[in-house]
Design goal:
It is an enzyme of class 2 (transferase). It comes from Larkinella bovis. This protein has 454 residues and is an alpha+beta fold. It has 14 helices and seven strands. A hairpin with a 2-residue loop joins β6 and β7. The longest helix is centred in the middle third of the chain and has 96 residues. The protein is rod-shaped.
C-alpha cells in the first residue's frame, strides 16, 4: 500500500509539471518548452504505466529493464536538447554540438537494438556479457552527458544555471543508480520490501525535484528573455526618439540655412534698389541745388553705412532703427517733397528693445512704392509704439492706379526674419483706409542670448 501511495503521488506530481509546461509551451511557442514537455511526458507516461500496467502485468526482469533503458534514452535525448537550447551550444560550442547529436543517436539506437535482440534471442540476451558491456557503455554515456550539462550550468553563473545544475546533478544520480543496477556487484539492490519502498521514495522524490528544478530554470529563463526584450524595446524606442530628434534638428538647421540664404538674397535685392533710386535723386540735385545735394550725400553716406553694417547684424535696437529711418526719410523727402510725411511716436522705455535690422526701412519703402504721393494726396506714414511690446507702422491707403510689379521682398524679408527667431509673425491689417503692420519687439537681452545660442 505504501508503494502504491508513493507511486500515486509520483504520478500526480509529474503529471502536474507536465500540464504546466504544456500551457507554457502553448502561450510562449518556444521550442525549449516543447522539448521539456516531451521529457516530462516520457516520465509521466512511465509512471502511469508503472501504476496501471506494469504493476498488474507479469513482466520479466529483462523486459522491464528494456523498457527502463528506452525511457531513459528518450529522456536523455530531450535533456541534451534542453542543454543545447538553454546554453546555446550550437554557437558557443560547435564541437560539443556534434557530440550531443551522436549521443542522441546512441540514446535512441541502443534501446531499439536491445529490444530487438531481446525479442530475437530471448531472456538470455540481458545476462550475456556482450549486453553487459554495451549497457555499461550506454549508462556511462548518459552519466557523462549529465556531467557536461553540469559543467555548462556552472559556467553560466546565473540563477537559471543554478537551478539547471541542481536538476542535472539529480539526473546524474538517477543515471548512476541505473548503471548500478546493471553492474550488480558494485551496487547491490535492496531485497526487503521496506528497502524497495525506500528506494522508490528516494528515486521518485529525486525525479520530482529534478523536473521541478528544470521547470524553474525555464521559467527564470523566460523571465530573463522578457526583461531583455523589454530593455531592447526601450533601447530601440530611445534610439528612434533620438533619431527623430536628430532628424528634426537637421530639418530645422536646413530651414535656418534656407532662411539665411533667402535673407541674404533679399538684402542683396534691397540695397541696390535703394542705391539706384538715391543716385537718381542726387543726379537731379547736383545741377539745381548743390547745397542740398551736399546734404543729401551726407545723409546717403550715413544711410548706406548703416545698411552695410546691418548685413552683419541679426538684431538692432529700436533707437538705432529710428535714427536710421530719419536719415532714410530725409532722402525720400528730397525725392517726394511735401507729398510725404512721417510721424514717430514711440514710448522712450521701448528704445532698448530689439527688432530685425532694416525692418522699418522695408515697411516705409513698401508704403512709398505702392501708394500715390502728391501734394493733393499726401502720403502719411506713422510709426507708433507703446508699453505693450509691439510697434505699429501704418500709412493711409491711396493705391496707385497702375499696377506695380512686386516681388514681395519687403514683407517677405520681415516675415522670414521673425520665423528665423521663432517669434510671432507680423500682423497685417487693412481697415478704415489704413494699411498697418504690427511688429512684436524682442523684449530683453535674455531673448537675444537665446537667439544667439540657436
Amino acid at each position: 500500500m505504501a508503494g502504491e501511495a508513493i507511486l500515486f503521488l509520483y504520478v500526480g506530481a509529474v503529471g502536474a509539471i507536465f500540464l504546466l509546461n504544456i500551457f507554457q509551451w502553448f502561450f510562449s511557442r518556444d521550442w525549449i518548452y516543447g522539448v521539456f514537455t516531451f521529457q516530462t511526458f516520457i516520465w509521466c507516461l512511465y509512471a502511469f504505466l508503472q501504476r496501471v500496467y506494469l504493476s498488474e502485468t507479469s513482466l520479466s526482469t529483462a523486459e522491464f529493464l528494456a523498457i527502463h533503458v528506452a525511457v531513459h534514452g528518450l529522456a536523455q535525448i530531450a535533456y541534451l536538447e534542453l542543454v543545447d537550447c538553454l546554453f546555446d551550444v550550437t554557437k558557443q560550442q560547435p564541437r560539443l554540438k556534434r557530440w550531443f547529436r551522436g549521443s542522441q543517436l546512441l540514446a535512441l539506437g541502443y534501446p531499439v537494438v536491445n529490444m530487438g535482440l531481446l525479442i530475437l534471442i530471448g531472456e538470455s540476451w540481458p545476462a550475456s556479457s556482450a549486453n553487459v558491456y554495451l549497457a555499461t557503455v550506454y549508462w556511462l554515456l548518459l552519466v557523462s552527458n549529465c556531467g557536461i550539462g553540469i559543467w555548462l550550468s556552472v559556467r553560466h553563473r546565473s540563477t537559471v544555471g543554478g537551478y539547471f545544475l541542481l536538476g542535472s546533478i539529480l539526473l546524474m544520480l538517477h543515471e548512476i543508480n541505473s548503471l548500478g543496477n546493471y553492474i550488480g556487484p558494485f551496487y547491490p539492490a535492496p531485497t526487503t520490501e521496506a528497502g524497495i519502498s525506500l528506494a522508490k521514495q528516494i528515486l521518485g522524490g529525486g525525479l520530482i525535484l529534478e523536473l521541478m528544478s528544470f521547470s524553474i530554470a525555464l521559467v527564470l529563463r523566460q523571465r530573463q528573455l522578457a526583461v531583455a526584450q523589454a530593455v531592447e524595446q526601450t533601447r530601440l524606442e530611445a534610439k528612434l526618439v533620438q533619431e527623430r530628434l536628430e532628424a528634426e534638428l537637421a530639418v530645422r538647421w536646413l530651414e535656418k540655412e534656407k532662411t539665411d540664404a533667402q535673407l541674404r538674397a533679399m538684402q542683396a535685392q534691397v540695397n541696390p534698389h535703394f542705391l539706384f533710386n538715391s543716385l537718381n535723386s542726387l543726379s537731379s540735385l547736383i545741377e539745381e541745388e548743390p547745397q542740398r545735394a551736399s546734404q543729401f550725400v551726407d545723409q546717403l553716406s550715413m544711410v548706406y553705412r548703416y545698411l552695410l553694417r546691418a548685413n552683419d547684424q541679426q538684431l538692432a535696437t529700436l533707437s538705432s532703427e529710428l535714427e536710421f529711418i530719419r536719415s532714410y526719410f530725409h532722402l525720400l523727402k528730397t525725392r517726394h517733397g511735401d507729398g510725404l510725411s512721417i510721424t514717430i511716436r514711440v514710448n522712450p522705455e521701448a528704445m532698448h528693445q530689439l527688432l530685425p535690422p532694416l525692418t522699418l526701412q522695408l515697411l516705409v519703402e513698401n508704403a512709398v512704392k505702392h501708394n500715390v504721393i502728391s501734394l493733393k494726396k499726401p502720403l502719411t506714414i506713422e510709426i507708433l509704439g507703446d508699453e505693450t511690446g509691439y510697434l505699429t507702422v501704418r500709412n493711409n491707403l491711396q493705391r496707385k492706379v497702375t499696377r506695380i510689379l512686386s516681388n514681395g521682398v519687403g514683407l517677405t524679408t520681415i516675415t522670414a526674419y521673425y520665423q528665423k527667431f521663432d517669434h510671432p509673425a507680423p500682423l497685417l491689417t487693412e481697415e478704415d483706409g489704413y494699411f498697418s503692420v504690427t511688429l512684436p519687439l524682442i523684449a530683453s537681452s535674455a531673448d537675444w542670448s537665446a537667439i544667439e545660442e540657436r
